Amino acid sequence: MKLKLSQLKPNPFKKQISKGELNKEQVDKIKANIKELGFFGSLPVFKKGDDFHLIAGHHRVQALKEVYGKDFQVEIVISNYNEDQVFRGMVIENLTQRTNDFMELNQNVVAIENYLNGNKELLTTLRDSREVQGNKLKHLHKQDLDKATSSDISFWLDKKSAKVLSHDVINNHLNAHHKLDPDLLKDVEKKHNKENHGQGDESLNQTQAFILSGLDREEQKEVAKVLKETREQRVRAQGKLISQYKKAPEEVKQRIKKGLIDLADINLEIFKDDQTKKYKEIQKEKDGKLRIIKTGEILDNVKEEVINTTKALDKFLYKVKAINFARLSWEDKKQENEFKNLIINCKKKSLLWTKILERIEEEIEDGV
Asked: Is the CATH number 3.90.1530.10 carried by domain 2-82?
């Protein structure tokens, strides 16, 4: 069956995504394909009264109108869908076709959450069907029992697997919507490209948005500035640094937010802060008297440890060189990769030691 484009009405749920507005860039891409190859597909629709409504394909319809005009006829496939199927059909196409559009992805996830929250019977049925009424809901607060979770959304999208959208992705987008400062959410890149992460773009990317949503809203803007200014611009590494930041002493957090130290140095600062506290504890005696430290004895012990450590390192390097020579005859690529990773890890550790020792040397010279 064929209908004119002008006879096709939008999905009733479309206005919940981007306020019903279409992505011009997406329309232009489809137009370019149509001009080059033509249009041979069909459009999924459902009938409501005397009207035909799209289930999905709104961008295709707009592209066809701009190329051929509103009277152009297209093949349609009529589905006898209920409200739930109509909504699912639309969001699944959105989620699978435009996975790189952060705002669209976010709005679709939130739209599903709102839909399930507004359909309590459906939400209860979803949970009953996967037997989560017991232990899996015990962690929820009483007031949250009637609210859709990321697990509910994932199961509603795909009852057999998480092929449409993983639980973690859904959870990240819900956190960004509910917990991230609204100004920061607007600042997030609309388009993200994993290859471009860490190249100094002034706007937040989606991974940084997810990282920040795990912090208290009062400090999110300050830490967003820290993420933009740190010399460590790999977003995965930033995630690990923020995990350390959450556990850091308040004094270290304040120094980072004030720009006195780089976020990339947080592990070193935490170590330094910890050592300072231990040093202060050592200085105190039960009666409040200062404890006398036998510096000469400590130095002698350190000298002995340095000699033993140097010998051990020399033996280690000799073995590494021997393995490297034997490597030329290896045929097992896995062995070679394991050896390479071992060298990389040793190198990282030695660089960390060097940095700490250089800092101590500077403090000695400065009389700190």
From this structure: yes
For the chain, the straight-line distance linking the first and the last C-alpha, in angstroms and rounded, comes to 84
- For residues 305 and 299, give the distance between their C-alpha atoms in angstroms, rounded to a whole number: 10
- Measured CA to CA, the distance from residue 205 to residue 192 in angstroms comes to 7
Q: What is residue 144's predicted lDDT score, i.e. its pLDDT? A: 60
222 token code pair: 């300050």
CA dist 229 → 32, 124, 346 (Å): 40, 46, 29
pLDDT for 327: 75
Any idea which residue has 């370019």 for tokens?
Answer: 32
Q: What is the pTM of this model?
A: 0.66
Answer whether 46's CB lies under 8 Å from 56's CB. Answer: no
Q: Where are the alpha helices (DSSP H) in the chain?
A: 24-37, 58-68, 83-97, 102-117, 120-129, 150-157, 167-179, 182-187, 206-212, 217-229, 235-247, 250-257, 266-283, 295-326, 333-366
Which of 36, 41, 71 minimizes the C-alpha distance to 56?
41
Query: Are 343 and 320 contacting, i.e. CB atoms less than 8 angstroms apart?
Result: yes
CA distances from 207 to 18, 109, 257, 270 (A): 21, 16, 20, 25
Read off the amino acid at residue 1: M
pLDDT of residue 110: 93
Measured CA to CA, the distance from residue 235 to residue 35 in angstroms comes to 39
